[in-house]
Amino acid sequence: MCLITFNWRNHHRYKLILVANRDEFFGRPTAPLHQWENGVYAGKDLKGGGTWMGLHPSGKFAALTNYRDLDNLKEQPISRGKLVKDFLESDMAPKEYLERVKVKKDDYDGFNLLVGDGEQLWYYSNYAPSVEMVLPGLHGLSNALLDVPWKKVVDGKRRLAKQIQLGGLSMKDLAAVQYSQVEDKPENLPKTGVTIEVEQALSAAFIRDIQGYGTVNVSVLLWGVDGEVRFLEQQVNKNGIISSEEKLSFFMT
């Protein structure tokens, strides 16, 4: 994932309301959202073997974004998608898991990791000093630290708040929160190791094809206080058009 906007334990009906865009090379082999043999609900990165976001019906949730720092990439890093996969397959509590990840933080390129169990949600980045609990409320996460006010993070939080206020919680209405292709002004852009032209293109929430790279799917997750989960994943082609979608509904045990 490269943009996650979410409302955590701040709604009478839902523990988690989340909308996310995954930005990736269009040619990277990927399986769409499905239930794995081990029970996990997620898409799968068929190259690295992990995933960017998923849930286990035992009550676990995890999601990942890359921390973009292309000037400091590792020579032989472990695939970051395994951080999500390993938590969903583990029996560890969220904070315990992240403390263990912290010990091995230098084995990975830059990442942001959210892990939760329905009662607590925790966050860690290998660019942050410590593991921290996510407080109830509205949050945004892109390719910098949690709630760093990049334009697409601020705008995404505003649009999600508006949808919640209006009661517009249909899956497709929520997906539209992340459809914006508006870019930030050059003078506001961070320096993450790419050219200014690419940096500006990456500043949009929904990224059109940039040399084979862009938004490849949009996901919506609604986790009810009653345990019901509704999960939507829309696949996006190189033309920026939604080509197919997967919907799943299940209950946490």
Question: Summarize this, please?
Answer:
This protein is of the alpha+beta class and 253 residues long. It contains 5 helices and 13 strands. The protein has helices at 81-89, 94-103, 151-166, 171-175, 196-202; strands spanning 3-8, 14-25, 30-35, 41-45, 53-56, 60-66, 111-116, 121-125, 132-133, 137-141, 213-224, 228-236, 242-251.
Q: Can you describe what's shown?
A:
The chain has 253 residues and is α+β, with helices and mostly antiparallel strands. It has one domain (3-251): Penicillin V Acylase, Chain A. Helices cover 19% and strands 35% of the residues. It has five helices and 13 strands. The protein has helices spanning 81-89, 94-103, 151-166, 171-175, 196-202, and strands spanning 3-8, 14-25, 30-35, 41-45, 53-56, 60-66, 111-116, 121-125, 132-133, 137-141, 213-224, 228-236, 242-251. The strands form two sheets. The protein has a seven-stranded antiparallel sheet with strand order 3-4-5-6-7-8-9, covered by helices on one side. It is globular and about 45 Å long. The model has no long low-confidence stretch (mean pLDDT 97). InterPro entries: TANGO2. This is NRDE family protein. It holds the Pfam family TANGO2.
